[in-house]
Write a structure and sequence with these properties.
398 residues; 10 helices; alpha/beta; Archaeosine Trna-guanine Transglycosylase, Chain: A, domain 4; Transcription Regulator spoIIAA; binds S-adenosyl-L-homocysteine; six-stranded mixed sheet; seven-stranded mixed sheet; Rossmann fold
């Protein structure tokens, strides 16, 4: 089956960007046209307007991203093809020596590992697989078999419940995929232990992408009064406590996440009186703290994705500015702001501008001492800049 593109619309493929939008398609061959929905996830050839082979891709009949490239080479897309991709992904993680830092890391990171639609996270002895596209759905069982064969891990849990599946016309699916994985497990990150609930937790259970940044916060926290906003299960809080923070106040709107946070204090044998947990809305609580003249030495802001795409950038910018402005006000002189955005729709340059304008409006001077990003287990293909989504700044208030 094949798809022919409009003249000129092959340009992005020649730059090895892996997406083809519906508007780029001139025609489809007879078989594909007749099959339509039945061809969901099937492998199709992408041809230039003059009939040259450009790439081999998966077909998504319902999505605006109508095809996602598996390969730019004229090679079969079969079980052995996915074995090669999985082996390459494993090798890349070995090369970055990720296991020296944690027993839990991302093994397959979608487009950036050449496997669009597949996210696979390793939590010690369990893999959590998330499939988000028609193409990944088509190859899911094959990839599950290969993961067992190539990693030797017998247990795979499926968390295909991300909202983006809807755009592909796919229903949410969760549950056991291979073996009988425990759904509540504990992992080790830089020697610290964390409870993870792979069935009910956010994403696949834990925000693995912040591992190195959590560790960095631990190194900076000695003797400080820390406020950790959007704390989830207390990743940054535990690192700060182990790093010797005087106190850590952690805020999240999820009571379940906070309950795990408290347990994480216990399994790391930390004194619970240094850790306070507060359920509530960060936007409101920061205002309340300002009105009460409270202050902190370090504030961490790791909010959820305010702007999934560039279309949401303006509204998201206001939200980022709001919390960063309040944080600058609550920081003591010389205090540290550790601020993040995981929005694909807000790039690093825009994020830095937002933080700068927050400092300006808060009437404070601040200096960037570090730029932060996602861990090396969340690689970014040079041809897929969208893969860079997490950006962070460490600023010192003057
Ligand atoms: N820093 C965490 C991950 C944060 S994810 C870690 O390292 O593990 C974002 C968190 O923000 C989620 O736990 C979500 O429950 C919480 N959240 C979302 N909106 C919120 C709000 N308005 N106020 C407080 N928490 C919020």
């Amino acid at each position: 089956m094949n798809i022919t593109l409009h003249p000129g619309r092959e340009k992005s493929l020649l730059r090895r960007h892996p997406w083809i939008f519906a508007s780029a398609i001139k025609s489809m061959d007879e078989t594909l046209r007749q099959a339509q929905g039945d061809a969901s996830g099937s492998t199709v050839d992408l041809l230039s307007s003059d009939g040259k082979f450009l790439a081999r891709a998966s077909y998504s009949p319902s999505s605006q991203i109508r095809a996602r490239v598996w390969t730019f080479t004229d090679e079969p897309v079969d079980k052995e093809f996915f074995r090669k991709k999985i082996r390459a992904a494993i090798e890349m993680r070995q090369r970055s020596n990720i296991e020296a830092r944690s027993d839990s890391y991302r093994l397959l990171h979608g487009e950036s590992d050449g496997t669009p639609g597949f996210v696979v996270d390793r939590y010690k002895d369990v893999l959590v697989l998330q499939s988000t596209t028609a193409g990944s759905e088509f190859w899911k069982e094959t990839v599950a078999d290969l993961l067992v064969e190539e990693t030797g891990i017998q247990n795979i849990y499926e968390r295909s419940d991300a909202d983006v599946r809807e755009l592909e016309g796919l229903k949410p699916i969760t549950g056991m995929l291979r073996g009988t994985p425990e759904t509540r497990l504990h992992i080790t990150e830089y020697g610290l232990r964390f409870f993870v609930d792979i069935a009910a937790g956010h994403k696949t259970g834990f925000y693995l992408d912040q591992r190195e940044n959590r560790h960095r916060v631990g190194e900076l926290a000695r003797g400080l009064d820390v406020l950790n906003c959007f704390c989830y299960t207390g990743g940054f809080s535990i690192h700060a406590l182990v790093g010797g923070a005087k106190s850590v106040l952690s805020i999240d709107s999820s009571a379940d996440a906070l309950a795990l946070g408290r347990e994480n204090v216990d399994i790391n044998e930390l004194e619970s009186q240094r850790a306070e947990w507060m359920e509530g809305d960060v936007f409101q609580l920061l205002r309340k703290f300002r009105d009460e003249n409270r202050s902190f030495d370090m504030i961490i802001l790791d909010p959820p994705k305010f702007a999934p795409t560039a279309a949401h950038a303006e509204k998201a910018s206001r939200a980022y500015k709001d919390i960063n402005l309040l944080a600058f006000k609550l920081l003591r002189h010389g205090g540290i702001l550790v601020t993040f955005s995981c929005s694909g729709g807000v790039d690093a340059a825009l994020f830095q501008k937002i933080v700068a304008s927050a400092a300006l409006d808060a009437n404070v001077d601040a200096t960037i001492i570090e730029h932060l990003s996602q861990g090396s287990d969340h690689p970014v293909s040079l041809h897929f800049p969208e893969g860079t989504y997490l950006k962070g700044l460490i600023c010192v208030k003057g």
